[in-house]
Amino acid sequence: MVAPSSMAPGSKGLAQSDLRLVAVALIAEAPRHGYEIIRLIEEKTADWYSPAPSIIYPMLTNLAEAGYMTSTADPPKLYTITDDGRTYLKQNRDLADVVLNRLTALGERVTRWRRAIGITSKPLEPDADSTESLVDILARAGR
Asked: What Cα–Cα distance (Å) separates residue 109 from each residue in 9, 48, 65, 84, 104?
């Protein structure tokens, strides 16, 4: 059973477990640096959500320590999925796909919403009302 929304209530962030799955799924596609994971999530959400480096880099270190990926020694570290990481992703593929699809759906809705209100570029910082509205949209998309 998948939770109604991958987004934490009252925030525009992902649950830590969902973010881990997204990172593993993106690294399974191709070896990636931490900043690439951040950039890809930003792209999927039309720049609505940008995971903080202070969340991404320790999480990638933990995934490497768990054996799900390896990393190069020199910064910027390049992360590559391992066989254990592929197994973890295979066991959680349905949930990973749901989270990735929700991020993409959010990005599409953000783009339509911005067009509808006449915003052609990324706003500097969304206000609380617009954040709540988009979290509601994401939750509805998941149903």
From this structure: 18, 10, 36, 35, 9
